[in-house]
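#struct-pred
JK: can someone run the complex with zinc ion? inputs below
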Amino acid sequence: MLIDVHCHLQDEAFKEDLEKVIQKAKDAGVRAVITSTQNFSEIPEALRITTRYPNYVYLAVGCSPTLFDRREVEEIKEFIRENKDRIAGIGEVGLDYYWEKNRRELQVELFKEWIALANQLNLPLIVHSRSAGKYAIELLLSNPPGKVVMHAFDGKTGWAKIGEEAGFKFSIPTSIALSRQKEKLVEHLKIGSIMLETDSPCLGVLQGERNEPGNLKYVLENVSQIKKLPIQEAEKIITKTTLDFFSL
Ligand SMILES: [Zn+2]
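RT: done, structure tokens with the ligand placed:
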């Protein structure tokens, strides 16, 4: 039983064949998928998908760290407040110093607001921290939310360990197949701190290829190999961590 804790099923890339993609995921042992939004306009399509696949696709609502339109940010927050019971988590939100090297202070300010909202509503926080791992962990430690999962963390292992000590979880993406940094991350984290994600349609096993939730099994294979655990054992622990973290 696998759970893809982070992907984007409302993406254009799935417009033509989502039905098949979901069936393939089911056939590959994926039991649940959390689709995350990044702006206000994605929410209706994401909602439609969660309604079409009840108890299979769950919704996380967030805001790209590079979305600075104050009105849109407030609209997203309002949607979250009004639909709290239909939402598995707030995300993705966070910091992105790769695509947006400037306006760091503004990103920090907005991220703090998302942390506050997650605390206020008692929802898990799904954190994006591209090229900003250290800064995101530091900020989270000084504004601690209840539940944090760092998605596709690309920072240093030392910072991940500091986050782990504070109880943060880390969702490991399909791109582990191509990334020594992700392998190292898994080597150093405890198995109990790990969840799995595809970030579909991004972060595919083969560069440039559309990713999909059915590829989650490859992440599990990599993780169980690195942790030297039988696949079923790794799967059991990871699923338990995920179900304790998200109320699905
Ligand atoms: Zn994502």
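RT: quick notes.
The chain has one domain: 2-245.
The pocket of zinc ion is lined by residues 6, 8, 36, 92, 199 (CB under 6 Å).
JK: thanks, will look after standup
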